[in-house]
Amino acid sequence: MNFPIRLGAPAAPGNNATVTLFDSTVTFPAGLQASCIRFVTIDFTNLDQASATAGLKGYKSVDRGLNWREDDFGAVLGVQIPTGDTTVKIYVGSAQHVKITLTAGATGPSAWYVNITADSGSLTR
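The structure assignment produced for this chain is given below.
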């Protein structure tokens, strides 16, 4: 599967609230490897409020989401998403299941344009 799969984004989080941006147990129940997914890309466009410090977090599961273990995916996650435009490309590699969440800052964003894609592509865009 060399073409990206575009996924819908959740509603914008409220003040200090957390939303799940991507959960492979929902989108790819058979697992990322079975679906040939190696990358998840999240594009934030015109974000008007920064996320919380370390607001973008990632988790891995080996038991279809019964238990999640936090993972920074090579220091790509566990970061603050600033205002403006930001693209985060996450190599999920051989993970069975992955979940990515975003926690808003003290003020939740009102400009919320988020595109999420999953594919088997490379690190370069």
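Interim note for the steering committee: The chain has a mean pLDDT of 91. The helical segments are 24-27.
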